[in-house]
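Quick one, C-alpha cells below:
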C-alpha cells in the first residue's frame, strides 16, 4: 500500500465498486472493473471528463436549478460552460415542474442559435436540489437525443441509493438492455452521499469507451486517491451483506427525517417540493422574502446568515431562474438540525421583506 500502484484505482477497489454497482444499480449486465476509472471525488471525475470531451468555451447542457459546485466543476479548470435547461423557469407558477425532453431540445436549440459548441448533456439522477427521480422513459429519450446530436451523456448517479422506500424505483441508465450510444455514455458514482464517506474522496467514472478510459487514466495522476484509502474502501464495499443492511436502514431513516422536516416547514407556511430522494429540502420562501427580485432573495439570505447565524442555500446560487427558493440539508446532526429549524421559524416570524425590484 505504500508503493506506487494504479493511480486510476487499484484493482481490488474497482472490483468491489463494480460488484456494488452491479447489485445495487441492478445493471442489465455485470459492470466490468476494467470499465471503471477512480478519481478523488465526483468533482474530480467531472473535471477529468471535461478535459477529455471539450475545449475551453464549449458548453455542456445541464438542468437548473443545480448543485452550485457543478458549475465550477466544469468551469474552474477546463473552462467549459454550463448551458442551463431551466426546469423552474422565471415565470413558472407550478410548485413542482418536472423535466421534459422538450426542455432539453429547447435549451440545445438556444445554445446552437448563439453559435455555441455543445459537447454533451449532464444529468444528476436523482436530482440535486429538486430530489426528482427520473423515469426510464425520460432517461431513454435523453440518451436518444444525445445520440442524435452526437453528444456525450454524463449521468451522475451519486444519489442512486438515497431514494425513499415509498418513492419511485430508481432506474440506472446501466439497467437498459441497450444504450443508444454506449461509447458516449458515462456514469458517475461515489461514496460521499449514499455512504456518507465524503472524506475518503472516492469518485468513479464508468465508461465502456476504451479511448475515453485511456485518456482519463493519463489524467488521474493529478487527482488520484491515496492507495491506503482505496484499500479501506474496497474492504468496506466487499462486505455486501453489510452494505445491504446499511442501505436498507439508511433509506428508512432518510424518508422519516424528510417527512418530519417537510411537515414542520409546512406548518410554518412553507411549501416544500415533494421530493422522492436526496438529502435536502427544496423550499418556497417567495411569500416570506418576496418573489420579484433576486435582491429580495439575497436580503433574506443575508438576514439568515448575519442575524440568525443560519446558512441555507439560496436558489440564485443554484442557478434557479426564479427567485425565492432555498435548499436546506436535513441530514446533519439532530441537535444542529433542531436548532436550525428553531432559528428558521423565528426568522420567518420576524423578517420584513424589502420592497425592491431588479
Amino acid at each position: 500500500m505504500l508503493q506506487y500502484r494504479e493511480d486510476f484505482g487499484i484493482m481490488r477497489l474497482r472490483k468491489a465498486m463494480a460488484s456494488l454497482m452491479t447489485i445495487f444499480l441492478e445493471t442489465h449486465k455485470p459492470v466490468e472493473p476494467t470499465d471503471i476509472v477512480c478519481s478523488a471525488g465526483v468533482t474530480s471525475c467531472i473535471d477529468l471528463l471535461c478535459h477529455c470531451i471539450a475545449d475551453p468555451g464549449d458548453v455542456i447542457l445541464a438542468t437548473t436549478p443545480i448543485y452550485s459546485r457543478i458549475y465550477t466543476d466544469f468551469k474552474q479548470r477546463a473552462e467549459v460552460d454550463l448551458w442551463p435547461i431551466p426546469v423552474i423557469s422565471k415565470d413558472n407558477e407550478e410548485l413542482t415542474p418536472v423535466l421534459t425532453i422538450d426542455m432539453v431540445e429547447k435549451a440545445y436549440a438556444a445554445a446552437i442559435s448563439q453559435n455555441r459548441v455543445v459537447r454533451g448533456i449532464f444529468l444528476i439522477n436523482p436530482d440535486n436540489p429538486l430530489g426528482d427521480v427520473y423515469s426510464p422513459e425520460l432517461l431513454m429519450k435523453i440518451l436518444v437525443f444525445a445520440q442524435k446530436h452526437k453528444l456525450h451523456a454524463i449521468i451522475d448517479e451519486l444519489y442512486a441509493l438515497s431514494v425513499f422506500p415509498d418513492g419511485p424505483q430508481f432506474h440506472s441508465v446501466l439497467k437498459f438492455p441497450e444504450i443508444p450510444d454506449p461509447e458516449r455514455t458515462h456514469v458517475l458514482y461515489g461514496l460521499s452521499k449514499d455512504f456518507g464517506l465524503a472524506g475518503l474522496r472516492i469518485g468513479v467514472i464508468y465508461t465502456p469507451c476504451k479511448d475515453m478510459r485511456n485518456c482519463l487514466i493519463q489524467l488521474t495522476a493529478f487527482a488520484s486517491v491515496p492507495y491506503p484509502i482505496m484499500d479501506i474502501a474496497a474492504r468496506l464495499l466487499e462486505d455486501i451483506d453489510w452494505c445491504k443492511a446499511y442501505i436498507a436502514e439508511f433509506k428508512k431513516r432518510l424518508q422519516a427525517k424528510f417527512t418530519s422536516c417537510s411537515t414542520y416547514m409546512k406548518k410554518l407556511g412553507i411549501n416544500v417540493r415533494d421530493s422522492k430522494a436526496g438529502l435536502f429540502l427544496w423550499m418556497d420562501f417567495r411569500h416570506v422574502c418576496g418573489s420579484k427580485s433576486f435582491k429580495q432573495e439575497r436580503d433574506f439570505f443575508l438576514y439568515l446568515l448575519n442575524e440568525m447565524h443560519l446558512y441555507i442555500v439560496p436558489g440564485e446560487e443554484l442557478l434557479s431562474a426564479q427567485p425565492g427558493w432555498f435548499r436546506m440539508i436535513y441530514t446533519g446532526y439532530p441537535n444542529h438540525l433542531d436548532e436550525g429549524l428553531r432559528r428558521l421559524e423565528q426568522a420567518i416570524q420576524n423578517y420584513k421583506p424589502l420592497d425592491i425590484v431588479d
